[in-house]
């Protein structure tokens, strides 16, 4: 009985630590993005380059992923409005059967975006990698991140740690019911950001520099 009580105490302490870490990480990242998120094409300032983080085009059930669709729509709107001149598509290309940048590039081209405006980052396995590679590989020190508000906030915080002046253009969000799992995962991803910096994490790959005019 005493052993059970000790285990319960340890688990309770761990749960409290986790909850505090989630609360702290969430507040810091949210505050870092205040005044840097835009939902209006007219209001958002010009940046030479936009960053479009990758996500899967299709859900497990085979339906189109609304997060993907809304990000493509937002990127097209920014490019057509002249609010960015170039766009870096940064996503997962971990196997020959899965290539986020290729799919997003194809859909941007289908929407009438000139191929000369599009650059692909095939090693953007997560937001941390995308933001670090933005400066290390693509030599960009300012950017407009194009994603849903929750990811924009996290990207902006990482950018601030990397010496990048970032703003976010909010793609249409997905309702709480449909996006519940994503929102839960986001809370843990925010904690992971601080763990990455605590232990000096690096992107999975770097590589040769890519010149953007």
Gyration radius (Cα, Å) is 19 Å
The assembly state of the depicted protein chains is single chain
- Given the structure, what is the number of helices? 6
* Overall number of structural domains: 1
Low-confidence stretches: none
Mean pLDDT: 93
Q: What CATH architecture would you give?
A: 3-Layer(aba) Sandwich
Shape: globular
Q: Describe the largest sheet.
A: 6 strands, parallel
What amount of the residues lies in strands? 5-15%
Tell me the span between the first and last alpha carbons: 69 Å
Structural class: alpha/beta
Order of helices and strands: HEEHEHEHEHEH
Instruction: Summarize the amount of helix as a percent range.
Output: 40-55%
Task: Describe this entry's structure for a reader.
The structure is a single chain. With 213 residues, this protein is α/β, with parallel strands linked by helices. The chain has a single domain, classed as Rossmann fold, CATH 3.40.50. Helix content is 46%, strand content 13%. It is built from 6 helices and 6 strands. A 6-stranded parallel sheet has the order 1-6-5-2-3-4, sandwiched between helices. The radius of gyration is 19 Å and the shape is globular. The N and C termini lie far apart (69 Å).
What labels would you give this structure?
213 residues; alpha/beta; Rossmann fold; six-stranded parallel β-sheet; 6 helices; 46% helix; globular
Task: Please give the structural blueprint.
Layout (H helix, E strand, L loop, with lengths): L1 H31 L4 E2 L10 E5 L12 H15 L5 E5 L9 H11 L7 E4 L5 H10 L5 E6 L1 H13 L3 E6 L9 H19 L15
Parallel strand pairs: 1-6, 2-3, 2-5, 3-4, 5-6
